Amino acid sequence: MDYLKAFLIGGAICALVQILMDKTKLMPGRIMVLLVCSGVVLGFLGVYEPFIEWAGSGASVPLLGFGNTLFKGVKESVSEEGPLGLFLGGLKASAAGISGALIFGYIGSLIFEPKMKD
């Protein structure tokens, strides 16, 4: 049942983003930034953590979850290291995800033949 809930919640988030992309003139990069910043704001307001506990991976995997991870990392790092934590916290908290994306993206580019859009 947890898998179904994660699939439905993650799918709903992605569907809402797709609607936003189709119905507005916002560029995909701006929508991605909007999602990450929304995750940070929702984390700051204390709304996103309970949502993640309820929805599971369906809420933690999309870009909203990445923004929340950045917020949590900065919050913890600032409490431990002071103002320097503003710069270190987000990188420490999200390093594994960013590294994984780079590594798997590179492996994908070796397996397939990426081409530029015309």
From TrEMBL:
Q: Does the keyword Phosphoprotein apply?
A: no
Ordered alphabetically, the record's keywords are: Membrane, Transmembrane, Transmembrane helix
Q: Which InterPro entries match?
A: SpoVA (IPR005562)
Instruction: List the transmembrane segments.
Output: 33-52, 93-112
Q: Which residues form a coiled coil?
A: none
On whether Membrane is a keyword of this UniProt record, the answer is yes
- What is the protein's given name? SpoVA/SpoVAEb family sporulation membrane protein
- Taxonomic source organism: Lientehia hominis
